[in-house]
Amino acid sequence: MNKYRSHTITGGILLVSFVVCLIISSFMNSAHAAGMSHLQKENEPSAANLTLNEKTKLLQLAGFPEDNEKAAAIRKIRVIPGGQSIGIKLNTFGVLVVGHHLIDASGGKLSPGEKAGIRVGDMIVEINGKKIEKMQDISQFVQQAGKEAEPLQVTIRRNEKMVRTELQPLKDEKEQSYKIGLYIRDSASGIGTLTFVEPESGKYGALGHVIADADTKKPIIVQGGEIVKSKVTSIEKGRNGNPGEKLAQFSAGQKKLGDIKRNSPYGIFGQLNEPISGNMKKESYPVALSHEVKEGPAKILTVIDGEKVESYDVEIVSTIPQKYPATKGMVLKVTDKRLLDKTGGIVQGMSGSPIIQNGKVIGAVTHVFVNDPTSGYGVHIEWMLNEAGVSLTETEQREAS
Questions:
Q1: Is 367 among the catalytic positions?
Q2: Number of folded domains in the chain?
Q3: Which one is catalytic: 122, 186, 336, 372?
């Protein structure tokens, strides 16, 4: 589904619209990325109350080396849980090639771009030594090169490598203009769910999974972007074999809430310009590392109507204490009758909905199981915090500053 537009977006999200479908290894056959007014707290000892040995084990499980000094310096991280629906507007690094097309030239039908070896998923970053940032930057080069019968010197980014090639534009006999036979795009838009805001720094995290281009299925290399408020207009209920989705919209001219600095396997991250309005809870909550997450009851925060964030019951079916970052750390199942009646479970657009257990933020919803929309995957919060630049220890915080 291609739901990227630069103007008002109606359609549901991120999970599939933006994202790559991932294959589930052990729990189900396949999954799709899944793009509060009340929250109950329960008492549980925080990391600050642990013994030194317990802290050492905690840090080891979180991927830190065994170091008593570092263990003693573990931070009491608190975040404001999200759940709000947000509009996402990304600018790509260069111009993305999303397809080839044939030009009706005098010598027959062909695609100059394909002939030059340019592939779908390549990023055009330079032409004739000049930096390319948007589609309009290319047109003047194409027309000039066509009239002068001189090939363009094109630099493309392919995965992590830079590749150079020559591209000769051809004249379209019908339209009497020069073309290169490539479909290109310089931006993408969609919707998702905010996961957390770190109140001290204003850093935020959302989605819990990477944003990939709908056509190329490759992660989008971000060169800036922004998030804005989004309103959920309706829900397409999920059924076995057919994940549902949130239908939401936002306007291109809406006020910017924050920027986008990073698009990683664990979501999008950046800095808020101002607090997100609405009924977002102002109270912050501690976070739980992966080894603290337990099988059993939990809650998710999300929007299924308008802009109202609500709490819904889920069950953590399984969880893996992770020493190293991984995108699938837990399996959850929706048990809340209200949510099941309305959505059928996890739907596209819920990606990034924060998960709360025992009064702590433990992670975010990321994927829905295609054959069972009541269930899906979640990512542990520590990996999202790491990507956002929120350090887990005082030592790292001092080094970062």
A1: no
A2: 2
A3: 336
Cβ proximity of 218 and 212 under 8 Å: yes
Query: What number of CA atoms fall less than 13 Å from residue 340's CA on the CB side?
Result: 11
Residues 6+ apart with CB under 8 A from 49: none
Per-residue model confidence as pLDDT tens for the chain (401 residues): 333 333 333 333 333 333 333 333 333 345 667 762 222 222 333 333 344 444 444 445 444 444 444 343 456 889 999 999 999 988 888 888 988 999 988 888 999 999 999 999 898 999 999 998 888 889 889 999 989 999 999 999 998 899 999 999 999 988 889 999 999 888 778 889 999 999 989 999 999 999 888 777 788 888 888 999 999 999 999 888 888 889 888 876 778 899 999 999 999 999 998 776 544 456 899 999 999 999 999 999 999 999 999 999 999 999 998 888 888 999 999 999 999 999 999 999 999 999 999 999 999 999 999 899 999 999 999 999 999 999 877 544 444 44
175 lies in the same domain as 192 = no
The verdict on 349 and 211 lying in the same domain is yes
Under 8 Å between Cβ of 388 and 269: yes
Active site residue 101: no
Q: Which of 85, 230, 290, 351 is catalytic?
A: 351
The model's pTM is 0.73
Catalytic residue among 100, 209, 291, 380: 209
Same domain, 231 and 335: yes
Q: How far does CA 296 lie from the centroid of its chain?
A: 27
- Asked whether residue 94 is assigned to any structural domain, the reply reads no
Residue 7 lies in a domain: no
